Amino acid sequence: ASWHPPWYSSYTAHYREAECMKEAMEELLYSYGTDIVFNGHVHAYERSNRVYNYELDPCGPVHIVVGDGGNREKMAIEHADEPGKCPEPLTTPDPFMGGFCAWNFTPSGKFCWDQQPDYSAMRESSFGHGIL
């Protein structure tokens, strides 16, 4: 599957902006056995482990953000799990899918993780391209 804004990205740029879409559609993709999801929007690379609802799940898809082609916005380099970099939840609305939907918080009850999330397998701030 593919669409523009990622559901699983630990960068501060566009952090959890598509949460409403994720809440509305993740169960559908999971129930039909989606194996891989491609997204852009965040100008960096990040690949997830198999994940469903922020938890590692052997039946969940791998999410790949390949938005690192470069543009005037520059590269995304900060992660929401870095000290002092977690955005305020109300600054992350999803205007296209109905507003604020970031109700899923980490197991510690926070909006951001304290370290690279378990779902995040690899992240790299660089410009490039992907080949499948």
Give short descriptive properties of this protein.
132 residues, mainly beta, Purple Acid Phosphatase, chain A, domain 2, 4-stranded mixed beta sheet, two-stranded antiparallel ribbon
- CATH architecture term: 4-Layer Sandwich
Secondary structural class: mainly beta
Tally of individual domains:
1
Largest sheet strand order? 1-5-2-6
CATH level-4 homologous superfamily: Metallo-dependent phosphatases
- Based on DSSP secondary structure assignment, what is the total number of beta strands? 6
CATH topology: Purple Acid Phosphatase, chain A, domain 2
What fraction, in percent, of the residue positions are helical?
A: under 10%
Q: How much of the residues is beta strand, in percent?
A: 15-25%
Please provide a written account of the structure:
The chain is mainly beta and 132 residues long. The protein has a single domain, classed as Metallo-dependent phosphatases (Purple Acid Phosphatase, chain A, domain 2, 4-Layer Sandwich). 10% of the residues lie in helices and 17% in strands. It is built from 1 helix and 6 strands. It has one helix at 19-31; strands at residues 36-39, 45-48, 51-52, 55-56, 62-66, 120-124. A 4-stranded mixed sheet has the order 1-5-2-6, with no helix packed on it. It is globular, with a radius of gyration of 14 Å. It starts with 18 loop residues before the first helix and ends in an 8-residue tail after the last strand.
